[in-house]
Amino acid sequence: MRPNPFQAQGFKGDRNSVTQHFPTRQLRFFLTAPSPCPYLPDRFERKVFAHLPLSDGATVNDSLTLVGFRRSQNIAYRPACEACAACVSARIPAGDYVFSRSERKVLARNTDLERHLVEAEATMEQFELLRRYLLTRHADGGMAEMAWPDYVAMVEDTAVRTHIIEYRTKSTDGGPGDLVACALVDLMGDGLSLVYSFYDPTAARRSLGSFIILDHLVQANLTGMPYVYLGYWVRGSEKMDYKVRYSPIELLRPEGWTLMSARDLRPTGQD
Asked: Rg (Cα) of the chain, in Å, rounded?
């Protein structure tokens, strides 16, 4: 089983924990020990994290997301690196989004897929698709060793409003069509948060990673949700540069959520 990084790294004494007051409770935050950064070479990461309460986890998670936290199972976390601030929370304002010509083509290429909203319950079919995705796209990443119990915990161990979107080909025999993509999605007070997504790595022509984001922009608009949350953009990390291809986009700066221009978000090294 893949170790939980928050348990494995732990925290060192009371000086690395702090209590934060919320309207109905107190949350205690902890700081992980340094570990190699998965995004930038020769750097180390630390995270501050808290356990989400079972009674009002959704409300607390909404509040923490607005200040840059992300959810993993029943833990909310955000980077707390001492000498680096490359990780920046990103969200897309769905109502203002105008699809580019290439994005409209991605949506058109996937009109044959059926979209199913299902309960946050892990299935072996989903897990097998995840394993194919990880071994093909992220074989050297920390999640490549994920086992079935890890996947069950990722999907089901939560106190927030969450669900899975399954994308399937249309059935030809009355049963379910082939599963080609999945997205674990939190329903926030002000939008949809893409917790994790994975897809058939052999279906390159479909651009399924982009399609999942674009489809959630469509769904957010249809349901009146203002934002789609993408997690962290990491300046200088090629694997994260895809997030700032979507425009307009808002990044969480010290002064608050800020609408950024295309020039501001060019990948490192481009003038």
From this structure: 19
DSSP letter assigned to residue 21: E
**Model pLDDT, residue 270:** 46
**Residue-range domain boundaries for the chain:** 5-89
Q: Are 225 and 190 in contact (CB under 8 A)?
A: yes
| Among 210, 245, 257, CA closest to 105 | 210
pTM score = 0.87
Q: What distance in Å separates the CA atoms of residue 155 and residue 166, rounded to the nearest whole number?
A: 13
Residues 6+ apart with CB under 8 A from 152: 122
The neighbouring-strand residues paired with 234 are: 87
Q: pLDDT band for position 198 (50/70/90)? A: very high
The secondary structure of residue 56, as a DSSP letter, is S
d(CA 53, CA 244): 32
Pairing between β-strand 47-51 and β-strand 179-187 as defined by DSSP bridges: unpaired
Tell me the backbone φ, ψ of residue 125, rounded to 5 degrees.
-60, -45
Residues 206, 158: Cα–Cα separation, whole Å: 31
Starting from the edge strand earliest in sequence, which strands make up the sheet with 47-51, in order? 17-22, 25-31, 47-51, 75-79, 70-72
| Residue carrying the six token digits 């808002």 | 250
Side chain identity, residue 1:
M
Q: What is the pLDDT of residue 9?
A: 42
